[in-house]
Amino acid sequence: MRSARTVALSAAFPMFPQRNQPIGTPVIQSPCNRVCTLDPASGICLGCGRSLSEITRWTQMSEAEREGLMAALDRRLQARRPATA
Hints:
about 40% helix, mainly alpha
């Protein structure tokens, strides 16, 4: 049986597959690499490069939106890395 806490977490984090999801439904690949630390100055996750808004909207985005965001993430993370001499 699912506890109230489990139900609340499932609602708060919709990125996890739902139990009633049809078998064979592709799972959305997320850029999350479990570093999950937001930079206070930019609001960007230091692990994946997404903003909190982008993280929470991930499962509601269209495939085209996710592809566009994935392309932008590499540029964001590269811009954050210090230049090497």
